[in-house]
Structure formats: C-alpha cells, structure tokens
Amino acid sequence: MSLIALPPQPTAVAWPTEAWPEGDLPPGAATRIRELADYAFTPEALPDLGQTHALVVIQGGRLVLERYAAGFGPDNTYPSWSKAKSITQALVGIAVGDGKLDIMAPADAPEWAAGGDARAAITPNLLLRMSSGLAFVEDYVPEHPSDVIAMLFGEGKDDVAHYAASQPLEHKPGGFWSYSSGTTNIVSRCVARALDAYGADFEAFMRARLFDPIGMASAAPRFDAAGTFIGSSYCFCTARDFARFGLLYLRDGVWDGRRILPEGWVDYARTETWAQPNEDGPYGAHGYDGQYTVVVPDLDMVVVRHGATPLDRKLAPKAWLGELIELFRS
Length: 330
Hints:
- Helix content is 32%, strand content 13%.
- It is built from 11 helices and 9 strands.
- The chain has helices at residues 30-39, 46-49, 84-97, 124-128, 147-153, 160-165, 181-195, 200-214, 239-250, 265-269, 316-327; strands at residues 51-59, 62-68, 220-221, 235-236, 254-255, 258-259, 284-287, 291-296, 301-308.
- The strands form 3 sheets. A 5-stranded antiparallel beta sheet has the order 2-1-9-8-7, sandwiched between helices. The chain has a two-stranded antiparallel ribbon with strand order 3-4. The chain has a two-stranded antiparallel sheet with strand order 5-6.
- The longest helix has 15 residues, at 181-195.
C-alpha cells in the first residue's frame, strides 16, 4: 500500500499544546459543512446516527469546527473504548525508541515461559497486528459468549493481560488476523514489564512521555488491580485532547520540534496488516459506540466524533463522517 505523505505543521500556526488556534471553514462549502454537522445533534438524526455528543474538526493545525450536544462541552471527557489501542501503540513506540522493547522478539509473557509452549513464538508485533493466533471471542452482545466482556467486566477484570495471555492458540502465530482486545492488553503489560512500571508509575511514564508534551492534560487512563494499563479500552479525554493525539500522528510523531514517537513508527501504525479487512479505513482510532479520531493526511485534517450509537447502526457515523470530510474537498 502506498502511504500518503504526512503534512508538516504550517510555519505560521502555533502548536496547540496550551490552546487550539482557530481557523475558518472552506468558504465555498462552509454552509453545507455546518448544516451537516448540526444535523448530527438534532432529534432527526437519532434513528440514524444515535446520539452525537461531540464533534471537533482540525485543519491545517487549526480548530475550524466544534459542536457539542446539550449537557456536553469542551471540558467534558469522553470514553475512548478501543481508541485506547492507538494510545497503547504510541506507548509501545516510545519504549521501542528508548531501546527498552524489541517488537520482533518473543513477547515477555510468563504464561508462555514453559519449554515447548508454541505461544512463545508470539511477538509484540503480532500482538499489535492482532495476528497472534490466540483464541479470543470479541463479541459485545451480553448474552453471547464473549472473552472481551469476561476480560473487562468478569473473571479477567483484575488482571486483563493474564486473562488474555492464558488463552490457547487457535491458529499459528502470524498466520491469521482476528480483532482482539486481549492482545492489546498483553502488549500493554509487555511495556510495563520492560519499564518495570505499573499503576501510578506507569501513568507517570504516560504523562511525562506522551500526554504532557502534547498538552493532553485531560487524559485519564484506567488500570486493573495488577497495575496494567487497560490499553484495549480505557483512556478518557476531552474531544480536543483526542484531536491533539490525532495531530501527533498527522505530524509523523513530532510535536513542536520534539520527536515523541520514533521515526517510522507512524508509518508502521498506518500500514495495514496482511489480510486485514479494511472496514474502517487504514488510518484512524475507532471505538465502540461510534467513537472516532480520523486522520486525513491529504486534507491536513483530524476529525473527532464522540457519541452513543447502537450496535446495529455502527456504520452510520462512519458514513456521516465520510460525507463531512468529502465536503472539505468540494
């Protein structure tokens, strides 16, 4: 896959570490963009999109559009759900850049340490790319068998990585792609073990190396009882802070002259895994209930949407966001 070049921060635009500089919508499409954005917050949109709570659009490093539903605002934090997986990917990159972690070496998982365990062939790379081969049922319907529900809310909730790492192999490592929140929590623990940092110590690492440098002051990660960042699902942030995270990736991991993510790490993130279904597009952070941070390099744009969309309408926010983004091309 040919990757679209990532645009640099415009020289005349301040980095939004403290506050977002504001900009204007494209004059020729401004009215239509506002109308489509406003629609998402009306009662008429409920049967289609479900509830939309927040919308933030960044273009050229500037805040050009922002909307909130009644009872929500720029100071409210919103659930990441699986958008936290992208934050975990960033943390892995920082550990790699520090020389603390080799993603191509066998993953540090005590559950696989016994001699002859075929799971010992699993690497952090395969965990990040959800090609570990571990059995894991990712189903969010409560009455269905579901490893993700058991991991987050049931028997695995006190040690999410151990629960996921204890699953048997269903496929040869590297030979099958399957979406799995469990693998993200295993790799989150790999970072913690590499740094020997858990709970408050790991959170201090997150803040010092990722959140604070780019101004994500609202970020509130969640940890299990074992001290592992639940990197599959839990980091609450304001919509503006999720946009800051998106801008970091749009700027190739560099922020205000400082490299936060190692060179090439963003391209690694946006390179599709073999046989990976391209249902949501190759570049973005997406979460349950219709949480989106979409990065659009050719438009120098980041779009953040938060809300509560029923599972049977989960593709509707994606289509609406696509329509909104296309208006910027007109």
